[in-house]
Design a protein that fits this description.
Blueprint: E1 2-4, H1 7-19, E2 24-29, H2 35-47, E3 50-55, H3 75-84, E4 89-91, H4 95-98, H5 117-120, H6 124-139, E5 143-147, H7 151-163, E6 169-173, H8 193-214, H9 220-232, E7 237-246, E8 260-268, E9 271-279
Parallel strand pairs: 1-4, 2-3, 2-5, 3-4, 5-6
Antiparallel strand pairs: 7-8, 8-9
Helix pairs in contact: 6-7, 8-9
The structure holds adenosine monophosphate.
Length: 282
């Protein structure tokens, strides 16, 4: 497996691969790879001839008081893990390579970014859309793989790809969880044993919502409040949002009449975790 650090070298690699008539899959990540990332990489390998995974902790998607500096970084372990998941190339640029002096262009996806994480993390999706747009231009993949864990991110990127008439196909992979339900996240590494226990309330609360909907409950306010109550059974949790919208349009709803996204953001100590489920009425 190769590690490429410059855009020039990446461009040359892409030219060669395309010249051989091979397809390329891109898996964008911020590293500190776990089974969720590796699942994306394996799926990518089934879909395309060559898998490129990017590892780049993108500064433009972090707010000034967020965890950019302490975000976990471990290229040595990531390289081994990615190779074992069938990745041929890791694209690992330095910040200056992606944002050289004088850099001034950003992608702003409107509307859908004005809710959920877009409200609590101003500028986050501007940074995500910008870096993914750049990666798609550099790697020119046939397909790019993203996790449903970041449900709003997927919707923002789908909007961008459609609006800019990009030919890449975005593939979405279901949330990978630990056996006890905790959604895998690089940020789980920040949790103490006690906090990790409290974090289980997120997936438990999604199960509460699923059971309510399965038993015929349609009232969105009631479901949201019972979900919040489940999370609050753990005293270390601080809810940022518990929110349901129609899916995939993310419109406000008071009753579930079709597919709905239930999304959560919860702080546990200093760590911010997200989780979600798509609820379907039978
Ligand atoms: P990140 O490194 O956190 O930016 O994540 C890189 C990609 O992996 C994103 O598309 C995430 O949605 C995806 N991802 C992260 N955690 C999971 C998970 N538990 N299950 C599925 N995909 C995930």
């Amino acid at each position: 497996m190769r590690i490429i650090e410059t855009i020039a070298e990446m461009t040359e690699f892409v030219r060669q691969v395309k010249g051989e008539g091979k397809s390329i899959a891109l898996v964008p990540t911020m590293g500190s790879l776990h089974e969720g990332h590796l699942t994306l990489m394996r799926q990518a390998g089934k879909a395309c001839d060559v898998v490129v995974a990017s590892i780049f902790v993108n500064p433009t998607q972090f707010g000034p008081n967020e965890d950019f500096d302490k975000y976990p970084r471990d290229l040595a372990n990531d390289s081994k893990a990615a190779a074992s998941a069938g990745v041929q190339v890791i694209f690992h640029p330095q910040i200056r390579e992606m944002y050289p002096e004088g850099y001034a262009s950003f992608i702003e996806v409107e509307g859908i970014t004005q809710k959920l994480c877009g409200l609590s993390r101003p500028g986050h999706f501007r940074g995500v859309a910008t870096v993914v747009n750049k990666l798609l231009h550099i790697v020119q993949p046939d397909k790019a793989f993203f996790g449903q864990k970041d449900a709003q991110q997927v919707m923002v990127l789908k909007r961008m790809v459609a609006d800019f008439n990009m030919s890449v196909i975005l593939e979405v992979v279901p949330i990978v969880r630990e056996a006890d339900g905790l959604a895998l996240s690089s940020r789980n590494a920040f949790l103490s044993a006690e906090e990790r226990q409290a974090a289980l309330s997120l997936s438990r609360s999604l199960e509460v919502a699923k059971a309510l909907v399965a038993s015929g409950e349609e009232d969105v306010a009631k479901i949201q409040s019972l979900v919040a109550a489940e999370i609050e059974t753990e005293k270390l949790t601080e809810i940022e949002y518990v929110q349901m919208y129609s899916y995939p349009l993310l419109q406000d709803i008071s009753k579930i009449t079709g597919p709905a996204l239930l999304a959560l953001a919860v702080r546990i100590g200093k760590t911010r975790l997200i989780d979600n489920v798509i609820l379907e009425v039978k």
